[in-house]
Amino acid sequence: MPRRLPEKTRNIERKPRRFGSRYFDPAKTFFQTIPVKENQEIEVVIDDIGSRGDGIARIQGYLIFVPNSRVGERVRVRILSVNGKFAVAEKLA
Fold first, then answer.
1. Quick check: is 74 in a domain?
2. Cα(70)–Cα(13) distance, integer angstroms
3. pTM of the entire predicted model
4. Which of 11, 24, 46, 74 makes an SS bond possible with 55, Cβ 3.0 to 4.6 Å?
């Protein structure tokens, strides 16, 4: 014999579940803007060393990887490639 549901849960139409926030504001973006462009030359300070030994500089929280650099070094770089989360640059002489 099938089990009967309590009166409270009977005959209730289930609404489809919505994912995300009810108060979504499309003006607020989830992605950061990219502060650099390819072939741009800028001066940066190396903050950290990456797992592959490259120096890491940050501009407005955006990562820039600079090969053959050391922590604390102030270098002039040219941006080679730009991705969504990081950029790769080369040291200028």
1. yes
2. 63
3. 0.66
4. 46
Q: How many domains does the chain have?
A: 1
Separation of first and last alpha carbons in the chain: 85
Tell me if 59 sits within 8 A of 36, measured CB to CB.
yes
What are 31-65's pLDDT values in tens digits? Answer: 668 999 999 999 999 999 999 999 999 999 999 99
**CA–CA separation, 36 and 53 (whole Å):** 22
Within a domain: 87:
yes
**Which structural domain, as residue segments, surrounds residue 69?**
36-93
56 Cα distance to chain centroid: 15
> In whole angstroms, what is the distance from residue 61 CA to residue 56 CA?
11
